[in-house]
Amino acid sequence: MAMTTEASAVDTVGSVVPALQVDNLCAGYLGTAVVRDITLRVLPGEVVALLGPNGAGKTTTLATIAGLLRPLEGSVRLHGVDLGRRRPEAMAKSGLSLVPEGRSLFFGLTVREHLKLARRKTGTSEGELLDILPELRPCLDRRAGLMSGGEQQMLALARALMSRPTVLLVDEMSLGLAPVIVDRLVPILRRTADELSTAVLFVEQHVAVALDVADRAYVMNHGRIVVEGRAADLRQDRELLTTSYLGQATAS
Q1: E-strand spans in the chain?
Q2: In whole angstroms, what is the distance from residue 147 CA to residue 156 CA?
Q3: Contact at 8 Å (CB) between 227 and 41?
Q4: CB–CB of 221/242 below 8 Å?
Q5: What does the alpha-carbon distance between residue 58 and residue 226 come to, in Å, rounded to a whole number?
Q6: What is the pTM of this model?
Q7: 130/135 Cα distance (integer angstroms)
Q8: How far apart are CA 69 and CA 88, in angstroms?
Q9: Containing H/E element for 170?
Q10: For 77-96, what is each residue's pLDDT tens digit?
């Protein structure tokens, strides 16, 4: 099966500039690269899954894009602008939001207080947000520490969306959650892209659920992208997915 290439994914929409463009990114810790030559793109309103086994480098990739780690090599561009080695707060001001693994909530604050802290003048209104995440409406005055895992994850996503990001990064949204909750949460990313025109790049271990909502996907293994293509094509090619997770596939 012929997989979709980076260039063809962009060419199908003419001259649209990717909301997020990463080229030849190498990143790691203490000067040692754990991810190498990462090149990926996400268009406005597109949902892209970043898949791969544990230890493949997915979280490191997101952290570097978000500015939490400085790249060793390569570039990160938002809407065509090279952000260089900007700090996380500068990345956020440029339109990027990260929902980190672990959620990073303030357990003593209510949902409403979390949203108030994240609100910006040109951001998403509380009403718009609750249309996307209606389950949070009855929780507005509940402290985060008293919420279920699924509700906490919705709050983490809601907090990121309050700034109306043009690029949203989500790391392991389903971590530790029951499959029935995962089935409710992950499709919210599709709705976010469709309704807010946000470019979404998300890491997810539930491969079938991820490919159901994504337009395209990249599969990482051993710190490199080994397979890339349309989600619909990857859903149909179980053998390719299996070999990529086992480290036997080669980049297309």
Answers
A1: 20-29, 32-42, 47-51, 73-78, 81-82, 96-99, 167-171, 199-203, 216-221, 224-230
A2: 12
A3: no
A4: no
A5: 12
A6: 0.86
A7: 8
A8: 9
A9: strand 167-171
A10: 999 999 877 777 888 788 99
